[in-house]
Amino acid sequence: MSEFWAITNSFPTAIYTTINLVLIGYWLLVALGLFDFEFFDIDIDIDPDIDLDSGTTQLTGFAGFLATFGLTGVPVTIVFTILMFVSWTLSYFLVLLGLFWTTNALILWVAGSIILIISFLFSLPITAQIIKPLRKLFRQLYGGSGAKILLGKPCIIRSSRVDLNFGEALCDMEGASLIINVRAEEKYQFKKGDSARIIEHDKEKNTYFIISEEEFNT
Q1: How far apart, in whole angstroms, are the C-alpha atoms of residue 155 and residue 151?
Q2: Is residue 49 part of a domain?
Q3: Which of 17, 128, 157, 199 has the maximal Cβ count within 10 Å?
Q4: What is the pTM of this model?
């Protein structure tokens, strides 16, 4: 047990330990009703069939990072919690395998830094596999009452184009920023940065049909 606490509270595992303690505190507050489930939540819902390397998508920043590693379709708080737990687990066992074979502080720091990076990188594909079964659940949730809330709401086009087969847009839902799959007739000629309105939801394909602001207002 002493070895467990020593590894848990030493570099690099201590970094993940601290983050996980914060996350545990967050989920306790959610359970007590002091925080809403979506308090720090951004849901990124992207069609897994989209080829992110084809240049057709315009996802950048945090959304692009999540999409690149397949961490989409599940609320980001859940994704981050799983990611940090897996990172902590990998870091712990990597340290257990032999980080304490030397007492040299410099070697310990360098080896610890490498373990910190490796444990995070390897946790990305593991987390992507873990959340796969959860996607269907959250897709059904957003396909229900959540989808109805979005009807009539404005959205901002995120992709380079929108047609009957492809398109993404950014929409706010009760404080959460959602990247949703959108479809529209080509006559609108939507491009990145344009504003549009959501008028219909295809539950089977989990896509939203949009029209221009001008047409919606008339």
Answers
A1: 10
A2: no
A3: 157
A4: 0.64
